[in-house]
Amino acid sequence: MAAGLEGLAAREGRQLEFGGRYPTVRAIACDRSERDRQMLVLEIDDRAQVLGDCVERPELIWAGDVDGDDKLDLLTTSGLSDGYREELFVSSWAGDRLVRRVAAFGGMAD
Hints:
Elements: E1 13-15, E2 24-31, E3 34-44, E4 47-64, E5 73-80, E6 83-90, E7 100-108
């Protein structure tokens, strides 16, 4: 399953369907004066978790089960002033969280 969050304002979100559950990923403004910097929040049932840092243009680019545990895993991307950063979050390493960041990589703008 793939999903994008392009153009989402604060508190709007993308509801996914995965394993009979309906998690939501929202882009929330970090500061009212700086609406272009946002953070992604994953909500499943009555639990919520912030994904990563406050960044420019965060997007969910993939959602599915990469580690084979029948739980939701996510791949996100965000813009930086001089490039981009992609992060992989998986559930099998989450412990008491919903997901845990296990990989991150980025590149420089041309």
